[in-house]
From TrEMBL:
Belongs to the ROK (NagC/XylR) family. It comes from Oceanobacillus iheyensis (strain DSM 14371 / CIP 107618 / JCM 11309 / KCTC 3954 / HTE831). SUPFAM superfamilies: Actin-like ATPase domain, Winged helix' DNA-binding domain. This is Transcriptional repressor of the xylose operon. One of its GO terms (biological process) is D-xylose metabolic process.
């Protein structure tokens, strides 16, 4: 019984420490007395836990606050620069990396573009981007606490990339490669899940609990937030809706199926529409920007291309709305830059096609983070994991 009692006391202490820390994090600056009042803990318990957090350099003290009748209280703040996180959006033809503090503020960023490279060649670029961001990091107690990489493919619970069809990757152990290279904890996640998390934490999805994030780039991925939790399915494979069939006799997809949604409503579709109308760019990555520029000049081909893509985009979104009845659908990734020409025909199609009761209290929005949802989501995943491990009392190695 003594062992159980000791263990239970330890668990309660760690839970209380987590509550105190999160209260400071969410309400900085705040006094010890206010923390005790909010959480219903006695002042000595709060004072002891605050001392631990100060010693761990996760929080700090700032000048006195306003007095309510006695001595002015010492205010506490979350030390969001105790460490830094790297978030990577690894796209089909680009890598976007951000360096953030523990609060998700972007401090530095790096981007490279490429076309049709092998895994080994992309890995070289990825290592270079990460190394550049590491060298930009300011001195801090914990240094770079994690690297998160969003990939356009299926990632299992062990964070192995089983299939990324648009990259032609199968059974890739990127997590192991990067941890061996940098000796920093790495998280690998599907890019749409990362984008959904980024929007919930920092973007237009903050206020809702039932969210569908539709990532439209070269392919299409879907991140699901159900009852305020990121839904990943039984084995972590949920959200591969870019590969749901919308045309039983359609073209062959890189996944091996036919008539997949992303063949009709993504940058891949835009490329085919451009080729059909003899519109070319030297770099396929620049095609979307080129088509947007043409649309700004009222080019009929570009306007019709975006109109067609928006209608196919609506078909898939209608299927999702009827399946999940979300509060909010967020359209993100690179195609969100074409909002001006996509939004109206998309909304018209959804209003005409989806079930009337599914449209009740439904919001259709475009990402407020634009192309940064995925990278910010991955940086947040790494920061949350670091803080959880640190607050739980497990050993964390500090950077000297």
């Amino acid at each position: 019984m003594k062992i159980n009692r000791t263990w239970n006391q330890y668990v309660v202490k760690q839970e209380n420490k987590s509550l105190v820390f999160n209260t400071i994090r969410q309400n900085s600056p705040i006094s010890r007395a206010d923390i005790a009042q909010q959480l219903g803990l006695n002042k000595s318990t709060v004072s002891s836990l605050v001392s631990e957090l100060i010693n761990e350099e996760l929080i700090g003290e700032v000048g006195p606050g306003e007095s309510s009748g006695g001595r002015r209280p010492v205010m506490l703040f979350f030390n969001n620069t105790a460490g830094y996180s790297i978030g990577i959006d690894l796209g089909v033809n680009y890598i976007l990396g951000v360096l953030t503090d523990l609060q998700g503020n972007i401090l530095e960023q790096e981007q490279v573009t490429f076309d049709n490279l092998t895994y080994e060649e992309i890995l070289v670029h990825l290592n270079e981007v990460i190394q550049k961001l590491i060298t930009m990091t300011s001195k801090s107690p914990y240094g770079v606490i994690g690297i998160g990489v969003a990939v356009p493919g299926i990632v299992n619970k062990e964070e192995k990339i089983l299939l990324a069809p648009n990259l032609n990757w199968r059974n890739i152990s990127l997590k192991e490669e990067l941890e061996n290279q940098f000796n920093i904890p790495v998280i690998i996640e599907n890019e749409a899940n990362a984008g959904a998390y980024g929007e919930v934490q920092f973007g237009i999805g903050k206020e809702n609990k039932e969210i569908v994030y539709v990532s439209v780039g070269v392919g299409i991925g879907v991140g699901l937030v159900l009852n305020n939790q990121l839904y990943k399915g039984n084995n972590g494979f949920s959200g591969e809706m870019g590969h749901m069939t919308i045309d039983a006799h359609g073209a062959k997809c890189s996944c091996g199926s036919e008539g997949c949604w992303e063949l009709y409503a993504s940058e891949k579709a835009l490329l085919q529409l451009a080729k059909r109308n003899k519109i070319y760019t030297t770099d396929p990555y620049d095609l979307l920007d080129h088509m947007i520029q043409l649309a700004k000049n009222n080019d009929s081909v570009a306007l019709e291309a975006f109109n067609e893509i928006s209608k196919y985009l609506a078909i898939g979104i209608n299927n999702i709305i009827n399946s999940f009845n979300p509060e909010q659908v967020i359209i993100g990734n690179r195609m969100s830059a074409a909002k001006k020409w996509i939004e109206k025909p998309l909304l018209d199609s959804i209003n005409n096609q989806s079930l009337w009761f599914s449209q009740k209290d439904l919001k259709i929005d475009f990402s407020s983070l634009n192309t940064h949802s995925n990278a910010l989501g991955m940086a947040a995943f790494s920061s949350e994991r670091f803080l959880k491990v640190t607050i739980s009392g497990n050993e964390v190695i500090r950077v000297k």
